[in-house]
Specification:
The chain is α/β, with parallel strands linked by helices and 451 residues long. It has a domain of 260 residues: Rossmann fold, CATH 3.40.50.1100. It has 19 helices and 15 strands. The strands form four sheets. The protein has a seven-stranded mixed β-sheet with strand order 1-4-5-15-10-11-14, with helices on both faces. Helix 5 packs across helix 6, helix 9 packs antiparallel against helix 10 and helix 16 crosses helix 17. The protein starts with a strand and ends in a 7-residue tail after the last helix. The protein binds pyridoxal-5'-phosphate. Pyridoxal-5'-phosphate binds next to helix 13.
């Protein structure tokens, strides 16, 4: 029998997060105040974040100790297995060896608790009583509800209306772990009320839900905001994924030739890829591929510029790849990949030539996702099918070239709450959206004139 899973023991959970800011050729461009356009200092962020996270966000320190309280929660599902996709390889007839890091085994079903847990912990330490946050497809809301529950603080989730209606069981899960949840736009905030006044039937958007959560946090002393992707500290918390993967590959004497992740805001990709990029900068030969949806091609088609992180201009202005903060992406089923911007770190590392971005259409992703479900048994999240598609394309290339190759991708989550998307696919109701070029061009006219 051939080995399928590479598992590590509890004692091998990484003890440190890796901060790739330490290894950039020049520091990131500073975030700017949404009102004044001036660089933000740590003090400007204290109304919505605890100082411990602000320090992690802005510091160039290379490694950060993971607190014991956080490790103890990580141990509920970490280390996650690295698995060989042997049956997928056979189905593709490829000489490549395909491995996937299985982040779907967390209680919430994705990589997101890796950052939700430390975020809840540091807020609890700072005496915060409630977290306000947004969720698109529902994964982040689930993760934050889970994490705040462990540290005894409350949680309010603003869930993008269209997903709230499409995914009732995400709402049930969020409620089970103790959070309160509102469809966004809601009547609870000025940003929400204004959006409803403009269009009572709006499906909502992630940018708008962020505005609601930031406003809630900024207007309540005991409440902080928390973001599940994009920010530097979020990417850093996720690096436990890549650190474990490096160890696991070493255990079986393998070396990755290609590392692949899907990108929405960039965090699960960063989690797997950043430790590999550290090794790449130190001389390791590895190709690092970020896969985004063709209908929301932030990195492959967007501009690298300062833009608002949200619709209502509450969140900081950051330098990143963006399609424009007023752009509302088509309603593809990979809800977690429908964001106009990208993590500043992923954007910069792409500009520096260390990451190769590609865009893939939704139908090809579902096709590869179904193949993965039928060969490996796991029904992937629609977001994760983008990484699978990237891996399949690499494996087919290896077949054409007749070359052995080691491909590692991140399975960021399972799709158990996304079955209506699979239903739609099998019913022939899905299609590929064309890249909405004119809408993007219009949105790019609204970039702030700063920097
Ligand atoms: C949220 C989510 C994503 C996209 O977010 P990133 O920050 O880009 O990782 C991808 N996959 C799953 C399963 C998610 O829940």
């Amino acid at each position: 029998m051939q080995q399928i899973k590479v598992t590590l023991s509890d004692s091998e959970i990484p003890r440190q997060w890796y901060n790739i800011q330490a290894d950039l050729k020049k520091p990131l461009d500073p975030p700017l105040h949404p009102g004044t356009g001036q660089p933000l200092g740590p003090q400007d962020l204290t109304p919505i974040f605890p100082m411990a996270l602000i320090e992690q966000e802005m510091s160039p320190k290379q490694f950060w100790e993971i607190p014991d309280e956080v490790l103890q929660v990580y141990a509920l599902w970490r280390p996650t297995p690295l698995q060989r996709a042997l049956r997928l390889e056979k189905a593709l007839g490829t000489p490549a060896r395909i491995y996937f890091k299985n982040e779907s085994v967390s209680p919430a079903g994705s990589h997101k608790p890796n950052t939700a847990v430390p975020q809840a912990y540091y807020n609890h330490l700072a005496g915060i009583k409630r977290i306000a946050t947004e969720t698109g497809a529902g994964q982040w809301g689930s993760a934050m509800s889970l994490a705040t529950n462990f540290f005894g603080i409350k949680c309010t989730v603003y869930m993008v209306r269209v997903s709230y209606d499409q995914k009732p069981y995400r709402k049930s899960m969020i409620t089970t772990w103790g959070a309160e949840i509102y469809p966004s736009p809601s009547e609870h905030t000025n940003a929400g009320r204004a959006a409803l006044a403009a269009d009572p039937d709006t499906p909502g958007s992630l940018g708008l839900a962020i505005s609601e959560a930031v406003e809630d946090a900024a207007t309540h002393d005991d409440t902080n905001y928390s973001l599940g992707s994009v920010l530097n500290h979020v990417c850093m918390h996720q690096t436990v994924i890549g650190e474990e993967t490096l160890k696991q590959l070493k255990v079986i004497g393998e070396k990755a030739d290609v590392v692949i992740g899907c990108i929405g805001g960039g965090s699960n990709f960063a989690g797997l890829a950043f430790p590999f990029l550290r090794e790449k900068m130190a001389g390791m030969e590895v190709k690092v591929v970020a896969v985004e949806p063709a209908s929301c091609p932030t990195v492959t088609k967007g501009v690298y510029a300062y833009d608002f992180g949200d619709t209502a201009h509450m969140a900081p202005i950051i330098k990143m790849h963006t399609l424009g903060h007023t752009f509302i992406p088509p309603g593809i089923h990979a809800g977690g990949l429908r964001y106009h911007g990208m993590a500043p770190l992923v954007s910069r590392l792409t500009e520096d030539g260390l990451i190769e971005p590609i865009a893939v259409p939704q139908m090809e992703c579902f096709e590869s996702g179904v193949l993965f479900a039928r060969t490996e048994g796991i029904v992937p999240a629609p977001e994760s099918t983008h990484a699978i598609r990237g891996a399949v394309e690499e494996a087919l290339k290896a077949k054409e070239e007749g070359k052995e190759k080691v491909i590692v991708f991140n399975l960021s989550g399972h799709g158990h709450f996304d079955m209506s998307a699979y239903d739609a696919y099998f019913a022939g109701q899905l299609s590929n959206y064309h890249y909405p070029e004119s809408m993007v061009q219009a949105a790019l006219k609204n970039l702030p004139q700063v920097g």
